[in-house]
Design brief:
The chain is an alpha/beta fold. It has 8 helices and 6 strands. The longest helix is centred in the C-terminal third of the chain and has 19 residues.
Length: about 210
């Protein structure tokens, strides 16, 4: 099933798209990069989706350091930004575009806190269980740096990584409330910007003996 509305933009959100997303109290977000080290690997795509299944893929140019409309949305206090493994994405957005994401929700942390019966907490396993959709992850390892020539399969993959996060968050909140762990999850989310800063300063094992 295709998104209700799908746009590909270069460099930043358009004014119209920003205005649309600013009316939402929750926005799903993901990033695609050239690797898993934010200090080394450049940011290539930022994907967003709102509760109306409106997906935007923003292509970030090589050497780009700002995206004012995206920054406004990501830092808007009324809108919760939903990620899967937020620690990586918010670190990447902070390093490459100077964006301090707030407030936020991480479905991976929530899954680990409440799906203690499950051995796997990747996006594919989580979405399959709580939303009932099987994601195609065959394009996970891609050359996202070739943003101008991405295939339809790559773009579909990028879009699907955000399309189901809002529904997954709702299901996870219900489970967290039922198990008395929602407040603990929120405390974890509040800590993530600090972890992002520590990651950029290359601290490791800071909390170990």
């Amino acid at each position: 099933m295709e998104p209700n509305d799908f746009q590909i933009l270069d460099g930043d959100l358009s004014a119209d798209r920003l205005a649309l997303y600013m009316t939402s109290d929750a926005i799903a977000v993901d990033t695609e990069t050239m690797g898993l080290l934010p200090l080394r690997d450049r940011l290539c795509l930022v994907q967003l989706c709102d509760g109306g299944d409106r997906v935007t893929v923003v292509r970030i140019q090589q050497g780009q350091t700002t995206a004012p409309n995206l920054k406004q949305l990501m830092e808007a206090p009324h809108s919760t930004k939903i990620f899967h493994f937020a620690r990586f994405d918010i670190t990447t957005l902070r390093h490459h575009l100077g964006i301090i994401v707030q407030p936020l929700f991480c479905t991976k942390i929530a899954s680990k806190l409440v799906r203690t019966y499950a051995p796997r907490h990747g996006l594919k396993d989580l979405i399959q269980e709580v939303v009932g959709v099987e994601l195609d992850k065959s394009s996970q390892s891609s050359d996202w740096g070739n943003a101008a020539n991405l295939s339809e399969k790559q773009l579909r993959y990028a879009a699907n990584d955000v399309r189901y996060l809002i529904e997954a968050r709702a299901k996870l909140i219900m489970m967290l409330e039922r198990e008395g762990r929602l407040a603990l999850a929120e405390e974890c989310f509040h800590c993530l910007p600090t972890f992002a800063q520590l990651d950029l300063l290359q601290y490791q094992n800071l909390f170990e003996h």
